[in-house]
Amino acid sequence: MLKRATLKETQELAHEVSLQVNDGNIILLNGEMGSGKTQFVRFLCSSLKVKDRVSSPSFIIMNKYETSEGLEIFHFDFYRLTDIRDLEEIGLFEILESKKGLVIVEWGNMFKSLFVKEKNIIDIYFNFIEDNINLREISIQR
């Protein structure tokens, strides 16, 4: 699915995705800096009724949230990572192995090989539209 989206349409798209996710799903978000990945996560978490403030984990690599229904959300940002060992230290592999919680990864394409065996992946790509700074092209692949 490919869509040109305003901020409001991005929020609606995040809500649609929220209706399709549960324990064991992985969402990989890809796109340039400032293309809307973190804002999408905020909208998604809002639709999932996350209790906490949602922010980019750029410097700490992972944030953990919980929904009012008890779903754990593990929000990763791979942008600053250069070594897969960093992911071992923060427990990514245990989280993936447990198949519990929703895993969201910003800059997921940086270590895409980690996810080739996973079956419950939603790949989302964000691209700028050159002639309109208020629109993004969003592509969702399963």
Keyphrases for this structure?
single chain; 142 residues; alpha/beta; Rossmann fold; 32% strand
Blueprint (SSEs and pairs):
Blueprint (H helix, E strand, L loop, with lengths): L1 E4 L1 H12 L7 E6 L5 H11 L14 E5 L5 E6 L7 H5 L2 H7 L3 E5 L14 E9 L2 E10 L1
Parallel strand pairs: 2-5, 2-6, 4-5
Antiparallel strand pairs: 1-7, 3-4, 6-7
Mean pLDDT: 93
Share in helix: 10-25%
Portion of residues in beta strands equals 25-35%
Distance between the termini: 9 Å
The total strand number stands at: 7
Number of helices: 4
Biggest sheet overview: 7 strands, mixed
- Give me the side-by-side strand order of the main sheet: 1-7-6-2-5-4-3
Helix and strand run: EHEHEEHHEEE
How many structural units, i.e. domains? 1
Architecture (CATH level 2) name:
3-Layer(aba) Sandwich
**Coarse structural class:** alpha/beta
Shape, principal axes of CA atoms:
globular
CATH superfamily: P-loop containing nucleotide triphosphate hydrolases
**Top-tier CATH class:** Alpha Beta
**Rg over alpha carbons:** 14 Å
Indicate the CATH topology.
Rossmann fold
User: Low-confidence parts lasting 5 or more residues at pLDDT below 50?
Assistant: none
Characterization of this structure:
By secondary structure, this protein is α/β, with parallel strands linked by helices. The protein is built from four helices and seven strands; from the N terminus they run βαβαββααβββ. The protein has helices at 7-18, 37-47, 85-89, 92-98; strands spanning 2-5, 26-31, 62-66, 72-77, 102-106, 121-129, 132-141. It has a seven-stranded mixed beta sheet with strand order 1-7-6-2-5-4-3. The model has no long low-confidence stretch (mean pLDDT 93).
